[in-house]
């Protein structure tokens, strides 16, 4: 199979993203399995490359290339940029790089997109009407294909643990009123389908076992510690998924769901809010976990870490998560 083309966004210009993007382009294993096309300001990458003695892919304004290159987009005031200091200007730039990569993936100019870390505050300062990648891509890619936003879910995955989130970027107090049975059934199905593709390609057992967590302590303790979320939403959703042939367990008490014994049998966890899944995942797999957006009409993966402003442009940041995101994107394209 020919090497797939990947649009790789450099993320927040003042963070570690530009350095990590340049490092993966120097990795011979990455270049042997894909054609990395960096989406970002070539002048910025040149400045970072000179500071850290890293090669900078040549600039171009077209995805019709067959070797590593920089797709010029997301211009910033390079001379005024200070490492570790984001602004509305850097937020607007990173937003434009994501839009450029997403549009290329929708058109078929690239086979997948891989995103570097953004600074959500910078997007807000720039007036971007989306809190992050997931919401933007659901709207932009979904509308481009179906005329409406895609109904997506965030999956954080590694070799040791996979978590799919029912809700993502919202205050914890708002989570209960955003839970509903139909949405949770879709989350279970998306989780199962994603793991099935992986297991099928590896020749492992099917169907995968999906564990759904409760919202409350002790998964509500039969209503003693809840307002009915488990009894009225979670349990009916699990039963509906089981009736369609899914192997689903739960609702599990969140405090015991991630023990080694449970992880040995569970293929993916459905978590009801952001930190319920992200805390155990990052504790177990911070360096190699990948963010995958399920339900998009394109393949999108991402690093699972932030912009690490305190490490920006110092040559200290690890690019292992970006490597893992690239590996995952290539694997998904080939499946």
Give a short summary of the structure.
This protein has 12 helices and 12 strands.
Question: What does this protein look like?
Answer:
The chain has helices at 17-26, 28-33, 42-52, 88-107, 120-125, 133-146, 175-178, 181-202, 229-243, 260-263, 274-285, 320-334; strands spanning 5-9, 35-40, 59-60, 69-72, 112-115, 153-157, 162-165, 209-213, 247-252, 268-271, 290-294, 300-303. It has 335 residues and is an alpha/beta fold. The protein has a 12-stranded mixed β-sheet with strand order 3-4-2-1-5-12-11-6-7-10-8-9, sandwiched between helices. β11 and β12 form a beta hairpin. α4 runs parallel beside α6 and α8 (181-202) packs across α9. The termini are close together. The mean pLDDT is 94.
What structural keywords apply?
335 residues, 41% helix, twelve-stranded mixed β-sheet, alpha/beta
Give the integer mean of the pLDDT values.
Answer: 94
Helix content: 40-55%
How are the strands of the largest sheet arranged?
3-4-2-1-5-12-11-6-7-10-8-9
- Any idea what the shape is? globular
Q: What is the number of helices?
A: 12
Strand content: 15-25%
In angstroms, what is the radius of gyration? Answer: 20 Å
Uncertain stretches: none
Structural classification:
alpha/beta
Distance between the termini: 12 Å
Count of β-strands: 12
Largest sheet: 12 strands, mixed
SSE topology string? EHHEHEEHEHHEEHHEHEHEHEEH
């Amino acid at each position: 199979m020919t090497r797939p083309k990947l649009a790789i966004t450099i993320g927040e210009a003042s963070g570690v993203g530009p350095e990590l993007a340049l490092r993966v382009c120097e990795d011979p294993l990455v270049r042997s399995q894909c054609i990395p096309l960096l989406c970002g300001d070539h002048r910025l990458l040149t400045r970072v490359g000179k500071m850290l003695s890293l090669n900078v892919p040549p600039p171009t304004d077209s995805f019709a290339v067959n070797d590593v290159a920089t797709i010029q987009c997301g211009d910033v005031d390079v001379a005024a940029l200070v490492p570790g200091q984001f602004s509305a200007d850097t937020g607007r730039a990173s937003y434009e790089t994501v839009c450029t990569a997403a549009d290329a993936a929708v058109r078929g100019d690239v086979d997948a997109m891989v995103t570097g870390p953004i600074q959500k505050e910078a997007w807000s300062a720039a007036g971007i009407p989306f809190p992050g990648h997931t919401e933007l891509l659901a709207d932009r890619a979904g509308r481009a294909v179906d005329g409406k936003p895609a109904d997506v879910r965030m999956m954080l995955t590694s070799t040791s643990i996979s978590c799919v989130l029912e809700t993502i970027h919202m205050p914890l107090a708002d989570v209960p009123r955003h839970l509903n049975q139909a949405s949770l059934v879709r989350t279970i199905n998306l989780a199962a389908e994603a793991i099935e593709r992986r297991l099928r390609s590896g020749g492992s057992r099917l169907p995968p076992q999906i564990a759904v967590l409760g919202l409350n302590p002790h998964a509500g303790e039969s209503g003693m510690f809840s307002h009915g979320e488990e009894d009225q939403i979670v349990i009916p959703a699990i039963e509906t998924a089981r009736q369609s042939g899914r192997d689903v367990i739960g609702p599990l008490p969140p405090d015991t769901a991630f023990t080694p014994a449970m992880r040995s049998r569970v293929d993916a966890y459905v978590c009801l809010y952001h930190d319920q899944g992200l805390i155990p995942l990052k504790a177990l797999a911070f360096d190699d976990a990948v963010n995958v957006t399920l339900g998009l009409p394109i393949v999108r993966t991402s690093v699972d870490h932030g912009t690490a402003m305190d490490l920006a442009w110092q040559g200290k940041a690890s690019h292992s998560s970006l490597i893992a995101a690239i590996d995952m994107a290539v694997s998904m394209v080939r499946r």
